Amino acid sequence: MNPRKKHPDAAPAITAHQVQKTVQDAKTLASIPGQELLDNPALNPKTRARYDELTTQRLEAELDLAHRRKLRDAHEADRREAERSEVDTIIAAARRATSPARTILDMTRYQARFGRVALAASLALSVGSAMGLAALVEANQGPAPVGYLAEIGLTGLSTTVIVWRGILARAGTVLDAATNRFFVALMLAPLLVSIVGSWLGTGPVGAACSIGSALFAGLAYLINTSASAAITQSIHQIDHQNSAPTPPARTDARTEPVPAPTATGPAFEESVTQVSTSAVREIEDYLSARASGAAPTAEPDRSHDDTTTPHTEVSGQVGASERPCEHPAPTHGSEDSERVLTAQERRRLEGERNRASVAAYLAAHPNAHTGDIAAHTGLGVSTVRRIRRDIEEGKA
């Protein structure tokens, strides 16, 4: 057995050839293009399998989490919808309970129900009071049925007065003080007689029956009057709500432009009439002058149709030969001068005719829109607007 070596073998010496070979291998690797693609785990063949596995796990986890979030959102939306529905139901029930119409319905039902109960109790107790009156009659050597008839008359009178007073209160009838006192006397007097008679006939027990009958009769009266007051107040509330003005509904519809205020009245109509008469008179004078052969010498009126700029709108009734000539004006006295002058006169007459048309339409329709006048007369909108402004300013 060889003894263990105390010192390891020395590393072999690195030769220049080995270094040169290593460097050459490194250069060869460095010369390979696209090595940066190996840094991407999805493109590296060694890590692609693991990359796909982890990607699948991540996508599954994200899908589960998204599913849970959607479930929570659905539960929350359902809870909110349930709460909103419950709140709407409670609010609707509260509105129905406090609405004047529901109050009228409830008061009508309760008035009939509780009124009948109170009157039935009053009539039942009046039986005990009738026994007391019958005993009083027998004690005075009289027939017992007379006591019962007396109680029926007294209780029936009081009950009838109470019912009728409730009907009057429901109808809103206002009675004078004397009538009210008479009603009170008709209600209380029979009850007092019944109480006294029962006390004398059967003692305190009969009096208690009479007092109880009177109290229930008073309760029936209060039920009728208070219910009638509540019904009247509810009717007033309904009338007030129906008569309250409602705000105008907002719409997104496009509204028509409000026409600009125009001058109206006798002064405006007189101005339009004067302009129309003046225009017709000028046209007649010109036609008469043309018929007699006289050449017009008046300077053309440019206030009706501006021809100084090429951008001015020309009436559609003026022909192309009537537009201003863009060439220099010829010398005075030539045929061209006469032709240009004639065109200017024709434009002036055309302006007068247009002004007369606009004035006539305004006389028939003082509040007409400028667009309507232009469509009716065949003129441009700007021309109609200028003529209308001159007419409204009272220019001749």
Keywords:
396 residues; mainly alpha; flat; transmembrane
Please provide a brief summary of the model.
The chain is mainly α and 396 residues long.
Number-wise, the strands total 0
Helices and strands, in order, run as HHHHHHHHHH
Helix percent reads 55-70%
Determine the strand fraction and express it as a percent band: under 5%
Q: What is the distance, rounded to the nearest whole angstrom, between the alpha carbons of the first and last residues?
A: 147 Å
Describe the structure.
It is a single chain. The chain has 396 residues and is mostly helical. Among the domains are: 101-238; 266-392, no CATH class. The chain contains ten helices and no strands. It has helices at residues 16-30, 48-98, 100-139, 144-170, 177-202, 204-243, 266-292, 335-364, 370-377, 381-392. Helix 3 packs antiparallel against helix 6 (204-243), helix 4 (144-170) packs parallel to helix 6 and helix 7 (266-292) packs antiparallel against helix 8. The chain is flat. Residues 251-261 and 294-340 have low confidence and may be disordered.
